[in-house]
């Protein structure tokens, strides 16, 4: 059950983050607020079902950081440093893409300046990120089956002759 929910939450993360990276109309402060609220609801549900050890919440980390990126101030060099230290699960390319797509929804917000984006890129240039922008939502985590030893010993097993397993010898 834990492995199923980890996979499911990864898919939610990948599809939501990919949509964020591809749609200018959703890159806004208010979307960041809505995402963070929805993610907190998912995390609360995991705790309520005692699935916090499944790793499902950790798969949402890139989406959480993207939501926080949408909510942070984006003006000064200190803001750039804060963004770089916060967004460790996002690649440089993803951070820059979100900042380029950021769209103010009211007169109190401003567009992200080109100078600010260059400042972010300078801060992140030493990162060795993979070159991909979008997450692979078809990624499948390996399934692990726990080993449960049997109480039956091998010398008590009887193999019927009809199975044609004469090549097996009891030791």
Automatic annotation (TrEMBL):
Annotated Dilute domain residues: 1-126
SMART domains named among the record's database cross-references: DIL (SM01132)
Gene Ontology molecular function: any one: GTPase binding
InterPro entries named in the record: Dilute_dom (IPR002710), Vascular_dev_regulator (IPR052072)
Superkingdom in the source lineage: Eukaryota
PANTHER family for this protein: DILUTE DOMAIN-CONTAINING PROTEIN (PTHR16027:SF6), DILUTE DOMAIN-CONTAINING PROTEIN YPR089W (PTHR16027)
Listed name of the protein: MYO5B protein
Organism, as annotated: Crotophaga sulcirostris (Groove-billed ani)
Lineage start: Eukaryota, Metazoa, Chordata, Craniata, Vertebrata
């Amino acid at each position: 059950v834990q492995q199923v929910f980890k996979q499911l939450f990864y898919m939610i993360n990948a599809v939501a983050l990919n949509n964020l990276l591809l749609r200018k109309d959703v890159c806004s402060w208010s979307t960041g607020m809505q995402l963070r609220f929805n993610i907190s609801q998912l995390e609360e549900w995991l705790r309520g079902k005692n699935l916090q050890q499944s790793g499902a919440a950790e798969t949402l980390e890139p989406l959480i950081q993207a939501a926080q990126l949408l909510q942070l101030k984006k003006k000064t060099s200190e803001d750039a440093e804060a963004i770089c230290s916060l967004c460790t699960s996002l690649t440089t390319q993803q951070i820059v893409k979100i900042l380029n797509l950021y769209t103010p929804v009211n007169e109190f917000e401003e567009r992200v300046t080109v100078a600010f984006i260059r400042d972010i890129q300078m801060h992140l240039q030493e990162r060795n990120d993979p070159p991909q922008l979008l997450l692979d939502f078809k990624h499948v985590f390996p399934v692990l089956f726990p080993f449960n030893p049997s109480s039956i010993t091998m010398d008590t097993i009887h193999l019927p002759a009809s199975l044609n397993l004469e090549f097996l010898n009891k030791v």
